[in-house]
């Protein structure tokens, strides 16, 4: 990886590192007596736990391999559960899981080849990822991955997916790569922004085009201020506050100029200008030191996903790659529920309903990497937690579809009340799982990623 790439990956991913710091803080609060008074999995719930264990054993399906792509027969139950959904969200309880990236890559190949999912959307920049193949059709997988995704996914496991994406471009069924984050990632700088808008907007006058470019560059600078503001640079925080009102007004005036355009690049430019509005709100939340900024980011990510589906890809089926928190269809943390702070999956569920299918990925044992690439071991699971219920199974990976309605007397009561589960292999949270995910995949022995070092 080049020095510039390392610098960009350090600066642009501070928000996701905030997520880690936040959940660590929540873990400390819970250890001091915070959190729900009686979640499933609390001591004293052994009989309920036994009933839940039996239900999991009766309903979980074995997935035989993380990587085998010559035979997908074990994945058929997942496709059957997905049914006619147009949008499938593939989560991960940690960004530092090589095993989850392998499994998701295998699933993406299967769903692309046999079920017509022709779009993969990453939790990375709308601008950097969505324009990559159009701008560089002869690119390499190594360059494409660095130019698109955050550093946490610049791994050997994810590179396999990017190799596959490029291979499909020569086929009759290319897999389209897009991003949906409002944050900066990959190869996103002033030169690339100016070049893109110059090419994308020939229908505007030279003056109008320059106005769009000026605002886009100004928003990019505000995003850079956000990195400094996160590190408590008060000058940067004040610049965000000062810039916000005028830039929002300018975007409000410029966006209608691009509405109704039919070319792919013009439609992407239109979506990008809309995304800038949410990016500015996210940075303002940072400048004002709002306790949690997940909601500000996630409303923008949801708008980008829906914008891509409605404007740029109106006939396509989409796969989404993101953290479990973002794909949740109900509040994934009690803190978010208390603040009524919605995540991306909640917004998408409200709009797409049965066309959306969300799969959370979890780890039973092994180790994982934090966003700073430090390795931690998966900790022991408390009785009655989501992970503990899979302990008796000996599958490499277990797939479990979650019924939305409580089946009285079946042993699935635990799914319809607050249940403990883990993020990052060690941080306990709780959620009503049947409302949060449509299914879960549990990896028996998780391994951290193999990070790319020679790019």
Outline of this structure?
The chain is 50% helix and 14% strand. The protein is an alpha/beta fold and 455 residues long.
Task: Please explain how this structure is put together.
The protein is of the alpha/beta class and 455 residues long. The chain has a single domain (3-185, 294-443), classed as EreA/ChaN-like  fold (3-Layer(aba) Sandwich). The chain has helices at 3-12, 14-31, 46-59, 76-82, 98-115, 126-130, 132-135, 141-148, 156-168, 190-200, 206-230, 234-258, 264-287, 294-312, 324-327, 334-339, 344-352, 386-389, 433-436, and strands spanning 61-63, 87-90, 117-125, 176-181, 317-321, 356-363, 367-369, 375-377, 397-401, 418-423, 427-432, 439-443. The strands form three sheets. Strands 1-9-12-6-2-5-3-4 form an eight-stranded mixed sheet, with helices on both faces. It has a two-stranded antiparallel sheet with strand order 7-8. Helix 10 runs antiparallel to helix 13 (264-287) and helix 14 (294-312) packs parallel to helix 17. The longest helix is centred in the middle third of the chain and has 25 residues, at 206-230. It is globular. The protein starts with a helix and ends in a 12-residue tail after the last strand.
């Amino acid at each position: 990886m080049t020095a510039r790439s390392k610098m960009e990956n350090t600066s642009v991913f501070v928000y996701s590192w905030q997520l880690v710091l936040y959940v660590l803080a929540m873990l400390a609060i819970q250890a001091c007596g915070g959190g729900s008074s009686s979640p499933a999995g609390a001591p004293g719930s052994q009989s309920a736990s036994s009933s839940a264990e039996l239900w999991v054993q009766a309903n979980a399906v074995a997935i035989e391999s993380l990587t085998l792509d010559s035979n997908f027969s074990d994945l058929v139950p997942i496709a059957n559960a997905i049914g006619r959904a147009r949008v499938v969200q593939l989560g991960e309880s940690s960004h530092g899981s090589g095993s989850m990236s392998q499994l998701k890559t295998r699933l993406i190949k299967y769903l692309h080849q046999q079920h017509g999912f022709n779009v993969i959307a990453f939790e990375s920049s709308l601008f950097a990822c969505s324009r990559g193949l159009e701008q560089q059709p002869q690119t390499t997988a190594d360059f494409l991955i660095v130019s698109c995704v955050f550093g946490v996914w610049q791994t050997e496991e994810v590179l396999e997916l990017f190799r596959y994406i490029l291979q499909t471009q020569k086929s009759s069924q290319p897999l389209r790569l897009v991003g949906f984050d409002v944050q900066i990632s990959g190869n996103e700088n002033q030169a690339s922004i100016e070049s893109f808008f110059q090419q994308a907007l020939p229908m505007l006058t030279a003056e109008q085009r320059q106005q769009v470019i000026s605002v886009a560059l100004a928003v990019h600078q505000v995003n850079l201020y956000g990195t400094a503001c996160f590190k408590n640079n008060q000058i940067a925080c004040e610049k965000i506050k000062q810039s916000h009102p005028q830039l929002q007004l300018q975007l409000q005036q410029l966006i209608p100029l691009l509405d109704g355009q039919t070319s792919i690049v013009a439609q992407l430019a239109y979506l990008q200008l809309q995304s800038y509005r949410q990016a500015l709100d996210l940075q303002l939340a940072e400048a004002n030191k709002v306790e949690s900024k997940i909601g500000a980011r996630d409303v923008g990510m949801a708008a980008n996903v829906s914008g891509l589906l409605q404007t740029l890809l109106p006939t396509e089926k989409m796969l989404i790659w993101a953290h479990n928190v973002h794909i949740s269809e109900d509040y994934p943390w009690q803190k978010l529920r208390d603040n009524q702070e919605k995540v991306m999956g909640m917004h998408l569920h409200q709009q797409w309903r049965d066309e959306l299918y969300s799969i959370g990925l979890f780890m039973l044992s092994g180790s994982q990497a934090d966003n700073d690439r430090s390795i931690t071991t998966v900790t022991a699971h408390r009785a009655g937690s989501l992970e503990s219920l899979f302990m008796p199974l000996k599958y490499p990976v277990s797939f479990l579809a979650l019924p939305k309605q409580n089946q009285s007397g079946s042993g699935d009561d635990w799914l319809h009340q607050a249940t403990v589960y883990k993020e990052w292999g060690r941080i306990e949270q709780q959620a009503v799982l049947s409302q949060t995910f449509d299914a879960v995949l549990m990896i028996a022995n998780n391994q951290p990623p193999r990070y790319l070092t020679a790019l």
